[in-house]
Amino acid sequence: MNIDQIISDIIRREGGFVNHPNDKGGPTKYGITKHALAEYFNRDIADITIEDVRGVTKELAADIYEEKYWRKPKIDRLPKQVQPFLLDSSVNHGPDDPILFVQRVCNGAEIADLAIDGVAGPATRKAAHDAQEIMGDWFLKALIEERSNYYKRIVAEDATQAVFLEGWLARLTEFG
Q1: How many CB atoms lie within 10 A of CB 36?
Q2: What contacts 167, CB < 8 A, 6 or more positions away?
Q3: Mind listing the pLDDT tens digit for each residue in 93-119?
Q4: Per-residue model confidence as pLDDT tens digits over 135-155
Q5: Nearest by Cα to 94 from 19, 16, 153, 24
Q6: What's the structural domain count of the chain?
Q7: What is the C-alpha separation between 29 and 96, in angstroms, rounded?
Q8: Alpha helices, DSSP H only, in the chain?
Q9: Residue 163's domain spans which residues?
Q10: What is the pTM of this model?
Q11: Pair (125, 140) in one structural domain
């Protein structure tokens, strides 16, 4: 699966414009928030309007995904088998969280002793490739479990987020 296919799948999952009152990201379109637009265009978030979010095109979303959520966190340098899942995680949670998932899984499997810092530096990238080689399909399964637990922690810490849990967990079923 190439980056264009991965991005197309995420845009489908994210859907169009949403402005749920409990969504901490605020209004989104294709998973792109006011914050993401402000960062991408190097503008103050106060200058980004709901109409700016409504105006996000699939092409703009794809560009933002590739720059902010794919290349910047170095997901493109992690094992190909887990890249679709990690990019989806990056768009859904922010670019650091999928790297945290990788680091926790690698440490838990005793493949490495990584700092849990959300940075895909050389040690994390090596550990991820080692994990893929050693664990095979179980690496992705462990990452899915880590993300599932993350969702459940969000809801445990903030009951207003429970409205999203079923959809979040359903999203994971696309990966395994």
Answers
A1: 23
A2: none
A3: 999 999 999 999 999 999 999 999 999
A4: 999 999 999 999 999 999 999
A5: 24
A6: 2
A7: 21
A8: 3-14, 34-40, 50-54, 58-64, 83-93, 97-108, 122-135, 137-157, 162-172
A9: 79-176
A10: 0.94
A11: yes
